[in-house]
Amino acid sequence: MSTQGFIPQRFRVFSGSMLKLIAVISMFIDHVGCHLVNRDFVLLSFYDYHLTLYRLMRDLGRFAFPIFCFLLIEGFLHTRNRLRYGISLAALAVISEIPYNLEHTGTLLYKEQNVFFTLLLGYLGFCAIEYLRKKQVLMLLCLLGLGVVAIYLNADYGVYGFGFLILLYALREQRILRIFTGLLLNNFRFIMLAFLPIALYNGKRGFIKGAFLKYLFYFIYPAHILVIYFIKAACIGFS
Length: 239
Fold this sequence. Notes:
The structure is a single chain. Helix content is 64%, strand content 4%. With 239 residues, the protein is mainly alpha-helical. Helix 1 (16-36) runs antiparallel to helix 2. The chain starts with 15 loop residues before the first helix and ends with a helix.
């Protein structure tokens, strides 16, 4: 299959920074809908069909994960220091775990782990693919081992999220075929729609430049879920 995209270059107007912004907005909508919105609040009714605000916000939130995965692949391919990149992912996963647990249970304990653990496992999978190309049996064993870890950790999106990342990386040049990787995930119809802004990516970094803005963008994740925890604790409580 050709590696050329189906959208002409002149229409690819989204920089990496714009994709990050879209993903962050989608993530924020998803988390607010999940934790702060009344699940029975109906926006629209048509005969037996009822569209709730909760369902709409969760659907719009499905754009975030595929875009973050795509950006992770871009980061892996273009970073000057893959070790430092991986350590940064691991550190952010650990830091985010406290607000993530608080957001879900109001305590420091929760049976699941945050999405940065899934992204970290995917990143390690990319490393296995790249550095063990000539040792395919070992590479396969590493990928299987990482999949087992994904199951054991019970990280967000789980082993299916890990599989999605690995397939997305393997099919990174197959711009049409990679859309179908979304079938691995729940609510795949909205997941697959996320490939539209990805298809509009022009390969440029955009307005998020420099170390300060880069790390500020990363810390939006733990910061916003900590804010949601405080709002939830003050206004709704935990059940």
